[in-house]
Amino acid sequence: MLRFLADLRAGYLTRGQATDAALPSQTVIRRLAELQLAEAAARYAAPDRRSARPPQIAVIGPTQAGKSTVVNLVLGREAAQVSPLAGFTVRAHGFQVAAGQADERWIADLFPGWRRLSDAPAARDEFAAFAFTTLRPGPDPERRDVGAGRASAAQDAPLPPECAVWDTPDFDSLSSHAYRRGVLEVIGLADVVLLVVSREKYADLSVWSLLRLIAPLDRPLLVCFNKLTPDARAPLVAALRARLAELGGAARDAPVLPLDLAPGLSLAAFRDAPQVVALRNQVLSLAQRAAGTDRTPATRAFIERHWSDWTAPIEAESDAHRQWRAAVDAALDEMRLAYRRDFLDHPQRYDSFRRVTIELLRLLELPGIAAGVHRVREVITWPARKLFALGRGWFRRTPGSASAGDGEERVLLEMVDRLLLRLERHAASQLEADAAGRSVWLAVSTRLREHGAALRQRLSDATRRHCDEVAAEIRIVADRLYETLQQRPALLNSLRAVRATADGVALIVAIKTGGIAAHDLIFAPAMLAVSSMLTEGALGGYMHHAAEELKHRQMRNVSESLLGGVFTPALHELSASASGVLGIDERRLREAAAALAGWGAGP
Fold it and tell me: Which domain range does residue 319 map to?
């Protein structure tokens, strides 16, 4: 699940940078934030990892709200750096309170892939980094009141119980998009979220957008209303509580703790103020209680809430893949119907069984004289055959001429051209109409445009191989007919006599004509006579059955072997080159959905 969320986020990050992205940029930004938060929450939800961590407190807020100051107030010491400059903090900084030897092994699981800052300073624009400091009881040796020669009273103050308090960057400045992930990572880690707002910022859209984002996680929330004045405190706190009640979820009952923190007031002067004590006690108490809560159900609910929105582009692309496959299947079904209509059931075009009869005529030649007749026929008809061959060659080379194939091959090759033209038009129309699945239709259109000739050749070659297989089937059928005739010697001898008579007459005519129209003169009369004797005689039923069986095998071979076995995968795979704008396919999505459904379920 974590790997899927990370890959999905990376896909949106790439998509957000693309110039031809189909999604509005604001949609990409919103989904990126949701995915970053979901990934962090899922990473830190595992109970085995949580048991090794102390309670985690995330202090978040807009610019100049006083987050770093509030962190110091909760810790009771000047740990976080405070600056009057807006956007001073750009990296998360955690402060662990440890009474004895601190176990820091859990820190290795934080911010995977980010650098933990130590003594080496970070560049201003190095945002994939975080800092972590362990605080111990007693004065801070690095912070001394030089005038008094001793640690300040604030530094001598006792530390709170064991916990980790996180100072985070802002989330509302113009440059915050570069480091906002650090804020979301800390929120995903946190047991308690402490939102710090000021009277200038509490109504900002960015504040409420973030609250709406994190509300489904159902993390305990406290709101520190900072920089108030006594006269404005009551009405502003009431207004803020009303807005929180409208938001619902964990925000509905979130405590709002006012803080009249004046600028320039020292920590020592304000550390024991009732407002600060109440804030510190509530935050630490709530963190201790929340640290033992199982966060897996809430995290899963957060992911399920946004799942359909996040995966909408993948679903759209999957739907486009299905539409393309359906279009291919519909076109091939139409091709099957056309093959039966325009060839198998066409009285003039269907020539397969006539070719069986011609093959049978060859088998009926009289033994002993067949070779001599054949040689004479070859010599006599050579000029005519040569002339016809030259004519056919010229006809093939004529621009715009039909395919050189005859019968079934010609019909099928014409269907291939119509099929590809139909699919090209369909892909072009969908490319204009379907914005969600545009990457799929663009890939199909591009493949058809750039590789259409190679695809046409591939399908044509498969068609010719099929026709070669049909020729072999025709010879097999003719052989079976001949074997059947051998079981009826009288009929076989009669057919041979008809064949011999037709050959003799044809040779005499061919000699007188110089071989012109030799094919018609030699084969047509013999074939007609043989066919009549076979179909009208005792073998008529067998001939009809053989003809229908051959037609059935041709239909099955075209439907299953040619269209189903070659055309379908070749055309389906045209959309496979669309890797998707998010780089995640439907299979991976289904696996992730199944993992989400079973996440956190018992054995």
Answer: 311-351+406-474+555-583
